[in-house]
Amino acid sequence: MKRVFPIIIVLISLSLTGIILIQINWFKNQLLIQQERFIDRVDKAGLDVAEDLSKHVMSGGMKLGARRPGFQLLPNDLSFSISRMPTISDRYTIGDIQSKLVKAFNKEGLENLRFEFAVTSNSDDFVVEMQSEHFDKESADTTHFRRRVIPIIPESGSNFDGLLANEHLFIIIPDFKSQVWQSLTWMIVFSVLFTVIIIAAFYITVRTMLNQKKMSEIKSDFINNMTHEFKTPLATISLAVDALKNDKVINDKAKWQYFNNIIKDENKRMNKHVETILQAALMEKQEFRLNLVPVHIHEILTQIADNYQLQLQEKNGKIELLLNATNDTVTVDEVHFTNILSNLIDNAIKYSNENLVVKLVTHRTARHFIIQVQDNGIGMSKETVKRIFEKFYRAHTGNIHNVKGFGLGMSYVKSVIDAHKGKIRVESTLGKGSTFTIEVPLNLAEE
């Protein structure tokens, strides 16, 4: 696993980098393609409008007639006329052309296109006949706009058939690239979304692998601890059984009783370990049920304090009871709640030096009953505080077996508190001690 894991990380990282680079390259190509399509659609729409304008404007000319009075060499009804080519401005307003362009662009799928236009005469100098409001302003920005010039050619069959275009339709697309990007909005959004999903999947995969690696190490540690915890009582029982076979021990009732008690005590110790492991399994499956009854928390704390007097004497320690709650009746599971308080006090004694002082503090609020277990022990690092309630996790103090246990006690405490819909938090300073605070809701039975 140690060798495979870095390889997997490298391969996934390379794959993800490759996907992102391909996406970037695809975006660049797609932008160029979309720009060409954009221009083609603008040209097509412009040609449609120019063709429509030529149909209506070139349908006839303006006639100018002249007739002389008096002597006439020509018939009276004979007149001559001079035709002048009509212009776009003679037949259409700016609003008319704007409307035609909008309809043409909509037809080509350019519904929200921003554009400016002008109609010019005299193809040599491009004299502006009519223009949109911001045409001059946008045409000055030669960096960002894209210009299209479309000749308005007389329609075949008109009076001016065969003439060159005398007018041109100018179309300016301001912020051309910006508008092209806007047309790719949804494509970009989905592409980015899928890339984010891939990155998230990569992150979850790596995180899961790291968690699995950590759990594997913790479980290995747990197995080592469990082996040690069972090996010691088994060895003690084995020695006691051998001693019971000795004739001197058989004939001495006191010695026989002594070794018999050792076997019983070690057997109880192993049964307690087995119960702890089975209890943890039930907690993980959430199959345990609470037997909620009103209990007096102060009585439980006093009883637990008495039970640990021998362990406290070994470390020249003491327990101080600061039972400030006026009403100590709380609806909880008496067995489980007694166990978790016992676990907290047991940990305070285990992880401490000489002259230990454990303070058990209680007080009551309108909604919660609060219990604090304070000690002046060795304390915990920030990493240990973060992981103290993790299953199988144990705070090491040098030798892995210098403190007995499987790393299940605090996980059990957290599970019981959660089952009671309460909260537990820990504050600790390395070398100065720790404080565990439990909050139990007073209306638990009603919930």
TrEMBL record:
Alphabetical list of SMART domains matching this protein: HATPase_c, HisKA
Coiled-coil intervals, chain numbering: none
Keywords of this entry: ATP-binding, Cell membrane, Kinase, Membrane, Nucleotide-binding, Phosphoprotein, Transferase, Transmembrane, Transmembrane helix, Two-component regulatory system
UniProt entry tagged with the keyword Transmembrane helix: yes
Reactions this protein catalyses: ATP + protein L-histidine = ADP + protein N-phospho-L-histidine
Entry EC number(s): 2.7.13.3
TM segment ranges: 7-27, 184-206
Protein name: histidine kinase
